[in-house]
Amino acid sequence: MRFRLTPRETSFYDMFAASADNLVTGSKLLMELLGADPSARAEIAERMRAAEHAGDDATHAILHQLNASFITPFDREDIYRLAGGLDDIMDFMEEAVDLVVLYQLEELPKGVEQQIEVLHRAAELTAEAMPHLRTLDHLPEYWIEVNRLENQADQIHRKLLAHLFNGKYDAIEVMKLKQVVDVLEEAADAFEHVANTIETIAVKES
């Protein structure tokens, strides 16, 4: 790691950790949605909206601190990218839950649970990785595993699409369900983008 003579603003580490912890909350709500009766989904969606608002607040706090700090722990553009990437993940998860409720989907296709399991594991890994930003230790294992999970998510997504277009669903139902599985895939992609940002930071700071 490069030696620095100037002090750095360290509150970013705690704020990134809080933002990532919130993703675990969001992924747990996705898992809860899977097993919930349709009549209970609106309440879960309300809690997901609260989590999404908390994520927005965390992002705004990071950007406010960024604007107020003369010395930052790593490049400003990387701080901005990391904050935005974490925020994107929560937005996609919240959107998926909202679509399920708005479209009044009675049953989700088999395979969605695998998508959500991948997202939950990626959220856990991301939350576990954030404290290591201080020292940059043990991070390669994190981004390698998240990249592997994203590849797995791609395979699950393709299988889901094949299932949706096998002729067993009517056209309107296919459109609704496809939107949900596509948004979940975007969340998996966003986890990979965050991992790539972490890797970029580690390379620059090493």
TrEMBL record:
Coiled coil: none
InterPro entries, per database record: PhoU-like_sf, Put_Phosphate_transp_reg, UPF0111_domain
Record-stated family: Belongs to the UPF0111 family.
Protein name: DUF47 domain-containing protein
Organism listed in the record: Streptomyces polyrhachis
